[in-house]
């Protein structure tokens, strides 16, 4: 076995170094594109691995060919190919370690170790492919391996780990990395040559000089061709990715200016946030990256909310919703969130992109609107419970009413909406009253007053009304709100008090003049009776009788005055009301016949006991029946009915006379108010007072040209 004397061919060495630089740059360029591409990631990785493996092999193979061995070199093609394959495998393992995960120090060490193995395997196996026997000096071999390892460790740290280099993305980073990588490969080659003693194996064939030169140039040509293809592909891919990167940067810039963006891995760990995310959350980028979104949890949403969120995006579907987050300072903010899952070839999410928009002000406005609507709703509820409410348009057409309006008017909502308030007109107020009302509200002023309305059933009710105009931008009312309160009972009370005031006035008048009138009446009556006894002249006798009748009439009026001024104490005794009424009817039977009036009497029972003052009760029945007879100058019928109902006795005296107009009906019973030409109104007034003293009530019903009914209700005497 003959030791080979090592002499280098400088041309081949320079060519090998240049080709290695080209291969290293191409490989690093392809590896740098891994994070920018999803679909071509596998092709880029294979291309970069192949390029780097070929670069290492070229340096070692051409470097061995550069040795001037005087034509003694022979080639074993299969072993040479095996060295290439093993070198490429180790290169792939090295770059897979440093490019496909979150880097740690251990990954750099393993990647550098695999690259060292690639250089060693290609060199050692390549030597055997040249049919050379090699003896290595262990010390030099170990030192060489450590230096190669350290060189690759520095390259990986600079390219993939150090933030000072990677964050700014310097344009000189890849060329520098290619030079340092080539330096490590070249260094490894020469150190390994230095550590080896090379011998020519016996029996090896000697290749002719022409065959050796042809083979060398063929290898150079093929290597250049392969590397040129890789470099061209790398350049083409880089150009396309540069365009994509430009578009992506434009999209990212637009998103960063308008949205809050975050990227997480499949487990929800934050891997990227933009400036707006940092700004709104109050956390720094370093505090956020590596955490999950629970750091922002405001505890506003239930656990089921987030379970549904993860269930959706875990299936590869886009999730949209509104989330309340908690900033670092403890304040809360709302974001409208869209989470887009990015799927791998297996259809599984490998990362999530969250795009958010700050909607805090909108949510505050919604909350304020809710509070305002609640206040309006509460006010509306209070109004609906206490008042009668109606809305009308500018022309007075009703557009909305509440339940109390329907209840008091008797009309349904459908009957009211679309109509005007003329539907409720009671004809009590004058036209000028409503003209003044409309004049006020059409000028944008609030109107207040009391109105008597007519319900659907014909009954009347009073409302205290406030009409508020709603003014449009042009200063004209576009609708009116009418708020009313039922004051019917108050008006009845006022009417009652007014009547009582009249009675009090009459009482005071009676107290002042009754006695003064009665004394001269007594004298006049005495002298008139004296004259009547001695008068023989029939005509004068008739005149005296007229005087006595008028004196008696005046005396009756005075008696009524006395009742008003000082009511007599009621002496109630238990009596049967039936014979009392029959007695009164028998007294008036003759007068009724003269006026062609028929009297009918009907009682539900023969004996109906009540507590009463018989004489005063007769006076009441006498007045009511006599009024009925006088209301039928052309004759008619009077029906007197007595019934007992729920502990009360009701006596109805009904005539078929001319009736009483509605506006006069309410004044019946007032002093000096009468519907008769020769009446003074005191009779009915006294009758009402008598019934009140018996704890009873009088109700009058009348219809023009059909008649009038006096209903007297008295408490029955229970056994």
Automatic annotation (TrEMBL):
It holds the Pfam family MHYT. It comes from the Bacteria. CDD domains: HATPase, HisKA, PAS. Residues 319-371, 447-499 form the PAC domain. Gene3D superfamilies: 1.10.287.130, Histidine kinase-like ATPase, C-terminal domain, PAS domain. Residues 512-718 form the Histidine kinase domain. Keywords: ATP-binding, Kinase, Membrane, Nucleotide-binding, Phosphoprotein, Transferase, Transmembrane, Transmembrane helix, Two-component regulatory system. Its EC number is 2.7.13.3. It is an enzyme of class 2 (transferase). InterPro entries: HATPase_C_sf (IPR036890), HATPase_dom (IPR003594), His_kinase_dom (IPR005467), HisK_dim/P_dom (IPR003661), HisK_dim/P_sf (IPR036097), MHYT_dom (IPR005330), PAC (IPR001610), PAS (IPR000014). PROSITE patterns: HIS_KIN, MHYT, PAC, PAS. Residues 247-304, 365-420 form the PAS domain. Residues 8-199 form the MHYT domain. The chain crosses the membrane at residues 7-25, 45-67, 79-96, 108-130, 139-160, 172-193, 214-237. PANTHER family: SENSOR HISTIDINE KINASE, SPORULATION KINASE A. This is histidine kinase. It comes from Robertmurraya mangrovi.
């Amino acid at each position: 076995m003959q030791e080979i004397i090592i002499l280098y061919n400088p041309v081949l060495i320079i060519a090998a170094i240049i080709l290695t630089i080209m291969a290293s740059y191409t490989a690093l360029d392809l590896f740098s594109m891994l994070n920018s591409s999803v679909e071509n990631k596998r092709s880029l990785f294979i291309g970069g691995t192949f390029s780097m493996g070929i670069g290492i092999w070229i340096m070692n193979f051409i470097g061995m060919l550069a040795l001037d061995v005087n034509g003694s070199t022979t080639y074993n093609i299969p072993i040479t190919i095996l060295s290439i394959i093993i070198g490429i495998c180790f290169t792939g393992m090295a770059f897979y370690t440093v490019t496909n995960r979150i880097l740690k120090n251990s990954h750099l060490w393993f990647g550098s170790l695999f690259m060292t193995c690639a250089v060693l395997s290609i060199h050692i196996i390549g030597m055997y492919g040249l049919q050379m026997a090699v003896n290595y000096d262990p010390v030099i071999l170990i030192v060489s391996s450590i230096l190669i390892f350290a060189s690759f460790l520095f390259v990986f740290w600079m390219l993939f780990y150090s933030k000072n280099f990677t964050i700014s993305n310097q344009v000189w980073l890849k060329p520098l990395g290619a030079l340092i990588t080539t330096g490590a490969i070249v260094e490894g080659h020469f150190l390994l040559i230095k550590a080896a003693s090379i011998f020519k194996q016996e029996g090896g064939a000697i290749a002719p000089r022409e065959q050796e030169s042809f083979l060398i140039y063929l290898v150079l040509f093929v290597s250049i061709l392969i590397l040129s293809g890789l470099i061209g592909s790398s350049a083409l891919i880089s150009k396309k990715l540069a365009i994509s990167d430009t578009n992506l940067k434009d999209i990212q810039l637009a998103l960063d200016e308008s949205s809050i963006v975050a990227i997480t891995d499949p487990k929800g760990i934050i891997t990227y946030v933009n400036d707006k995310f940092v700004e709104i959350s109050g956390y720094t980028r370093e505090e956020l990256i590596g955490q999950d979104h629970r750091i922002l949890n405001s505890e506003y949403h239930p656990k089921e909310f987030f379970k549904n969120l993860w269930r959706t995006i875990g299936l590869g579907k886009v999730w949209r919703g509104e989330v309340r987050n908690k900033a670092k300072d403890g304040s809360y903010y709302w974001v409208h969130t869209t989470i887009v899952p990015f799927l791998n070839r297996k259809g599984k999410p490998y990362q999530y992109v969250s795009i958010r928009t700050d909607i805090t002000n909108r949510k505050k406005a919604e909350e304020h609107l809710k509070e305002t609507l609640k206040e309006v709703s509460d006010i509306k509820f209070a109004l609906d419970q206490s008042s009668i409410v109606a809305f009308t348009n500018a022309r007075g057409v009703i557009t909305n009413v509440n339940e109390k309006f329907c209840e008091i008017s008797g009309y349904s909502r459908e009957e009211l909406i679309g109509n005007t308030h003329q539907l409720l007109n009671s004809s009590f107020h004058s036209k000028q009253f409503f003209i003044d009302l409309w004049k006020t509200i059409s000028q944008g002023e609030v109107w207040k007053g009391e109105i008597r309305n007519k319900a659907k059933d014909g009954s009347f009710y009073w409302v205290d009304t406030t009409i508020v105009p709603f003014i449009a931008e042009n200063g004209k009312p576009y609708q009116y709100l009418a708020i009313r309160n039922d004051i019917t009972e108050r008006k009845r009370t006022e009417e009652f008090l007014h009547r009582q005031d009249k009675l009090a006035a009459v009482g005071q008048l009676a107290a002042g003049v009754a006695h003064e009138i009665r004394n001269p009446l007594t004298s006049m009556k005495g002298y008139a009776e004296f004259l009547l006894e001695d008068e023989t002249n029939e005509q004068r006798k008739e005149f005296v009788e007229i005087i006595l009748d008028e004196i008696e009439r005046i005396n009756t009026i005075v008696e009524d005055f006395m009742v008003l001024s000082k009511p007599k104490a009621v002496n109630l005794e238990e009596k049967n009301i039936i014979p009392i009424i029959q007695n009164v009817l028998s007294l008036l039977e003759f007068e009724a016949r003269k006026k062609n009036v028929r009297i009918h009497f009907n009682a539900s029972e023969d004996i109906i006991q009540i507590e009463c003052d018989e004489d005063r009760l007769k006076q009441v029945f006498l007045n009511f029946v006599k009024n009925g007879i006088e209301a039928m100058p052309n004759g008619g019928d009077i029906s007197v009915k007595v019934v007992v109902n729920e502990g009360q006795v009701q006596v109805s005296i009904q005539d078929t006379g001319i009736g009483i107009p509605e506006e006069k009906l309410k004044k019946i019973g007032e002093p000096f108010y009468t519907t008769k030409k020769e009446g003074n109104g005191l009779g009915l007034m006294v009758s009402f007072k008598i019934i009140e003293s018996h704890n009873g009530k009088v109700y009058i019903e009348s219809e023009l040209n059909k008649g009038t009914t006096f209903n007297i209700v008295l408490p029955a005497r229970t056994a």
